[in-house]
């Protein structure tokens, strides 16, 4: 288990982290989300030992991380770091060797990863001849080549087309199922909702919500009541309790405190009720609420 405890970090007068705490268990995929400048990269850099925190700690299974621990981690930094003139396969193998793989092991792992990330045909191209999305795939291969025990990825999905997103998601899910804790940051909340077991929302250097995606959705109460009434007089919903948004026959009501039966009665009286149901909040809605 990776535990991040009460991290504080200032850059001069600027407070970047103000008590960041969360943990990622083995086999857990953790989505780290927050607005630009919220503190995600700073937290991941401290986790990887690239930056030092002013206070707080990063533990693995209850003890402070060492250089050797981090060597067995897979890290994709925000500032991508590939040798532009080196060929793709050569490069991934090289990083594999740097992380301690044998020549044969690095070659085999590179071949497998290039295959999984649909890069086999580009194996002999230099990196600067690749599109940005393909460079990103190579960067991921570099982070994964030594079969890391922990994965820390700073916006691994940004700039990828939907097929590449799926390929990467599959690779990460397989590592996760093998027991690897996976932490990644992203602004693509639909993706985080789809892939992650849990999320941490950071806002101005503080965690404003952390937990399983489903738990966070439940915590928000019942969510939004969606009612569709055909043939109702316009404005029938104006006096309903809660906040009402009308779009044609569809009415969305938030802030309803009870089970909504009164609203159902009023809808039945107003016209022909085609739909009446609760919509749980999406991660995007939870995010907006958490950073408001
Ligand atoms: N080297 C630095 N010097 C001064 N301020 C910095 C430095 N690095 C980051 N900051 C500031 O610290 C805060 C947190 O930045 P950080 O890069 O961790 O955010 P982030 O959540 O990763 O943002 P983004 O989503 O835009 O990548 C921001 O206000 C940023 O401007």
UniProtKB/TrEMBL annotation:
Gene3D superfamilies, alphabetized: P-loop containing nucleotide triphosphate hydrolases
Q: What PROSITE patterns does this protein's entry cite?
A: ABC_TRANSPORTER_1, ABC_TRANSPORTER_2
| Keywords tagged on the record | ATP-binding, Nucleotide-binding, Transport
**An example molecular function term from Gene Ontology annotations:** ATP binding
Q: Which domain of life is it from?
A: Bacteria
Note the InterPro entries from the entry.
Answer: AAA+_ATPase, ABC_transporter-like_ATP-bd, ABC_transporter-like_CS, DrrA1/2-like_C, P-loop_NTPase
Outline the extent of the ABC transporter domain. 2-229
Q: Name one Pfam family in it.
A: DrrA1-3_C
Similarity annotation? Belongs to the ABC transporter superfamily.
- UniProt name for this protein: ABC transporter ATP-binding protein
Q: Could you tell me which species this protein originates from?
A: Streptosporangium amethystogenes subsp. fukuiense
């Amino acid at each position: 288990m990776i535990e991040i405890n009460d991290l504080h970090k200032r850059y001069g007068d600027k407070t970047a982290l103000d008590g960041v705490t969360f943990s990622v268990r083995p086999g857990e995929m953790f989505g780290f989300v927050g607005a630009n400048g919220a503190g995600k990269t700073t937290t991941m850099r401290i986790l990887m030992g690239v930056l030092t925190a002013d206070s707080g700690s990063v533990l693995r299974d209850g003890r402070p991380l060492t250089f050797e621990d981090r060597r067995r981690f897979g890290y994709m930094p925000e500032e991508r770091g590939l040798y532009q003139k080196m060929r793709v396969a050569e490069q991934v193998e090289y990083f594999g060797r740097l992380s301690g793989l044998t020549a044969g092991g690095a070659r085999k792992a590179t071949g497998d990863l290039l295959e999984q990330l649909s890069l086999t045909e580009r194996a002999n191209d230099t990196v600067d001849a690749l599109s940005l999305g393909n460079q990103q795939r190579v960067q991921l291969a570099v982070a994964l080549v030594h079969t890391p025990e922990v994965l820390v990825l700073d916006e691994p999905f940004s700039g990828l087309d939907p097929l590449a997103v799926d390929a990467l998601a599959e690779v990460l899910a397989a590592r996760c199922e093998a027991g690897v804790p996976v932490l990644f940051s992203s602004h693509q909340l639909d993706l985080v909702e789809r892939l992650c077991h849990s999320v941490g929302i950071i806002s101005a250097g503080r965690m404003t919500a952390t937990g399983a995606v489903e738990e966070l959705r439940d915590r928000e109460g019942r969510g939004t009541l969606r009612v569709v009434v055909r043939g109702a007089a316009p404005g029938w919903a104006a006096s309903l309790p809660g906040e009402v948004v009308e779009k044609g026959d569809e009415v969305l009501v938030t802030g309803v405190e009870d089970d909504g039966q009164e609203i159902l009665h009023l809808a039945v009286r107003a016209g022909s009720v085609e739909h009446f149901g609760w919509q749980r909040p999406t991660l995007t809605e939870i995010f907006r609420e958490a950073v408001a």
